[in-house]
Amino acid sequence: MELDEELCLCFHVTRRKIANFIRIEQPKAVGQIAECFGAGTGCGWCRPFIQRMFESAAAEGELPSAEQYAQQRQQYIRETKGE
Ligand code: FES
Q1: Sign of dihedral through CA atoms 52, 17, 14, 1?
Q2: Residue 12 lies in a domain
Q3: Residue 18 belongs to a domain
Q4: Mean pLDDT of 67-78
Q5: Residue 71 falls within a domain, yes or no?
Q6: Which domain holds residue 49?
Q7: Whether the predicted pLDDT of 72 surpasses 70
Q8: How remote is the CA of residue 10 from the centroid of ligand 1, in Å?
Q9: How many domains are contained in the chain?
């Protein structure tokens, strides 16, 4: 599905609108995404897909910064002696 295609068909909310809402508003619960033009509050068909987008964004938020990532790698190499 392309970013400008509708994810919530009931309320004509595009995937891009939902992705931007998640990025900017950083909802703590998936239900808060309903504040994005009512996404997911109609028939319910799109809710599992909205849930997936929410979980994916949450997982991305758990990634370390590039600096932390490189430092953690150094520690990993020290601990495993490069093996
Ligand atoms: S398609 Fe989103 S609530 Fe119906």
Answers
A1: negative
A2: yes
A3: yes
A4: 89
A5: yes
A6: 6-80
A7: yes
A8: 4
A9: 1
Q: Which of 36, 45, 54 to mutate to test the pocket of ligand 1 (most atoms within 8 A of CB)?
A: 45
- Assess whether pLDDT exceeds 70 at residue 82: no
Cα angle, residue 40 at apex, residues 35 and 44 outer, rounded to 5°: 155
Q: Is 1 within the bounds of a domain? A: no
How far is the centre of ligand 1, averaged over its atoms, from the C-alpha of 54 (Å)? 16
Quickly count: other Cβ atoms within 10 Å of residue 42's Cβ: 14
Residue 3 predicted with pLDDT over 80: yes
pLDDT tens digits, one per residue of 6-62:
999 999 999 999 999 999 999 999 999 999 999 999 999 999 999 999 999 888 877
